[in-house]
Amino acid sequence: MSESERLLARAERLVPAWTQTLSKNPTQWLRGIAPAYVTRAEGAHVFGVDGREYIDFPMALGPVILGHTDPRVTAAIERQLRDGITYTLPHPSELDVAQRIVDRVPGAEMVRFGKTGSDATSAAVRLARAVTGRDHVLAAGYHGWHDWYVATTTRDLGVPRAVAELTGTFTYNDLASLDAALAAQGGDTAAVVLEPSGAERPAPGFLEGVIERAHAAGALVVFDEVITGFRLGPGGAQERYGVTADLVAFGKALGNGMPISALAGRAELMELLAEVFFSGTHGGEALSLAAAGATLDALDDAAYAQLYDMGETLRAAVLASIKTYNLSDWVTIDGEAPRTLVAIREPGDPVDGLVAKSLVQQELLRRGVLFNTNNFICLAHSDEDIATAAAAYDAALARLADGLTDGAGGVRALLEAEPLAPAFRPVR
Ligand SMILES: Cc1ncc(COP(=O)(O)O)c(C=O)c1O
């Protein structure tokens, strides 16, 4: 029995759903092919429990922007560790990191810290409700595990119907769908929450249109920059697209893997957080703040140029393979260069393409590349890593094209494990 299988057998008894995070779970990684656990990582490489090394592209689901074990972040954490982890009163590094965020992020005048992206988006929703005196919210994109958002997905078990009724959705890059959703909430929308750029990039005028319509309806605009923040540039998607939301939620890249998130916005709104309850034992924990300070300092213009260059190189290579193998009906790559997304469909499953996605994951894993559809570029990816990944994608897509000549059954025949399961499906 492999070490992966031995550990999964233990997890089955000890950990419901095996893992703490859906996208680390064996329904998302081919059992028997992917390592079920990772024991170590360095730079852009991770080491699976079965002894194999992989080039990491999911990068821990996005936070690790400088690379694993970045020496600047490690040194900052070690320095702080000698002085303690968390205290009865705040540590001054809260102010240093808040200042860095205010200096970088358009519209940010005040900052509060949390631990997870869900903390930051949920605090934004509560604050928006308090500011507007309204209860309803509208969402587009993924915003974390809390009731107000997860009510809009197929993973809504345990969410009270009364809460679910308060959140509506609209379609990204579709202003008419926002108009309809605002109208359906009849003037009671507190916040329009969206990822400003994600699986798709914003069409010209879309973000401006969202802000204009939300404000006309008396709602606040919350940008969920948990992924895009400090990844698309120092000022995130707001800076890249020249727009300013009312509130902005950050997480992931802020701490290069340490658990820290932030909510930022105009002082006149943020000041109400003195009354609106957003509080936790570990808020302002000093190791994560030390990591955040070192991470933000390392992300200079040259760093962003590198993230974009490498991301565009990988995108161009994947696009070329899609063209070579005539796969444009089934495989697309979109998103911003520092985080592209490879979407895979198949005959009979236009939403997820789970068998085809499984085959691509199988072929990439076989070639030493971790694949879960996200290509998060970090500063430790080398030109050689990108070239290896490009060659692995080419081989994987060639194999997919082979399978597709015999339809969905042909793809399944090439798969050497049970196919992956859906992560999420929106219900409305
Ligand atoms: C855009 C976005 N918002 C919010 C979240 C939730 O963050 P967390 O998982 O840290 O709670 C995520 C997590 O993947 C995310 O991608």
Structural descriptors:
428 residues; alpha/beta; Aspartate Aminotransferase, domain 1; Aspartate Aminotransferase, domain 2; 2 domains; seven-stranded mixed sheet; three-stranded antiparallel sheet; 13 strands; binds pyridoxal-5'-phosphate
Explain what this protein looks like in three dimensions.
The structure is a single chain. This protein is an alpha/beta fold and 428 residues long. It folds into two domains: 3-65 and 301-414, Alpha-Beta Complex (Aspartate Aminotransferase, domain 1), CATH 3.90.1150; 71-298, Aspartate Aminotransferase, domain 2. It has 15 helices and 13 strands. The strands form three sheets. A seven-stranded mixed β-sheet has the order 4-10-9-8-7-5-6, sandwiched between helices. The protein has a three-stranded antiparallel β-sheet with strand order 1-2-3, with no helix packed on it. A hairpin with a 4-residue loop joins strand 2 (45-48) and strand 3 (53-55). Helix 2 (71-81) runs antiparallel to helix 11 (286-298), helix 12 packs parallel to helix 14 (383-404) and helix 14 (383-404) packs across helix 15 (407-414). The radius of gyration is 22 Å and the shape is globular. The two termini are 43 Å apart. The mean pLDDT is 96. Bound molecules: pyridoxal-5'-phosphate.
